[in-house]
Structure formats: C-alpha cells, structure tokens
Amino acid sequence: MKSTLPQNTIHFCPKCGSNEFTFHEDQSFLCDKCQFHLYINSSAAVAALIINDKDEILLTKRAVNPHKGMLDLPGGFVDIMETAENALIREIKEELNLDIDKFDYFMSSPNEYIFGGLSVFTLDLAYICTVKNFNNMHAKDDISEFRFCKLSDLVFENICTGSISKIIQTFVNKKGEQ
Ligand SMILES: [Zn+2]
Q: Fewer CB under 10 Å: which end of the chain, C or N?
C-alpha cells in the first residue's frame, strides 16, 4: 500500500497526542484514548478553462512541486470559508493578473495530490471562464509561464495530473460534438 496515504503517514492523535490512533475502513481515524474522530475528506480546488478567440486553451507551467515544470490549468485550492467562485477569481488574478468576466460551472474531478509526503485528496471544480482581455497578463505566484495551446496539439502526458487531463479531455470532446 502507498506510503503517502494518511493511514501510513499519520500516527498520532492531533488532539491528545496518543499513538493509539487507529484508521478504519470508512476513511477515518479514531483515537482509542480520547475518542477523537478524524475523517479524511476531499479538499476543494478550482480550475479554469480559458479559451482565446483563436480557439486555443490557456495552460500554465507549474513553478513549484508537486509536478514542477508540468502543464496545468490556472487555479488552486479553495481557502477556508471561501466560495469556489471567489477562489476562481482570486487564483486567476494571483497567477496571471487576469480578470474573469464570466464563468460557468463545467464539471468536477477527484485528484490525489502528494504534498510533503502526504496524499492530499482534492475535488477539482472546473469552470469555463471568459476574460475581458489578455493585455496585462503575466505569470506570477506558483506558475513560471503560460501558453496558449491549440486543442488539437494538446499532449496529455505533459499535463500535471489525471484529474486536470480528464477535465481538458472532456472539454475537448464536448467541443468536438458541437
Ligand atoms: Zn486522542
């Protein structure tokens, strides 16, 4: 079994510090000493599908691990007590200095993201976004560069995660049906 899974990584109760912290089949830990119950759930993340007027998709290159140097969709984690919509607007501004004009929910896709040796499970929420203009766009924050890529030229082996690949593939397939 994978060493990064929570049951192989987390050994102590975060409430009382006991090592009698047992993982159960329902993806939760139960402390046998203080009865603290910790469920492992998905963290929410957002991803933006942004297409220019040449029908090219906007991809970013990751500047940080995991998957440093690989291609990604713009986006990131939803902060605590933040809406997905706000996270989308905030992340696109932070990463690319772009202002989203309109957005529509597209699909969700589950993902496993290994960070600091621990599997962090996410649910990636994808939105189709339009932006007013690309004039002031530049790469910053946790991306090193961006590029527009023709949908027919996409190389899915260069996309950072299976989840993001699936979102883009579904989008390409739906566009092909139109
Ligand atoms: Zn405990």
A: C
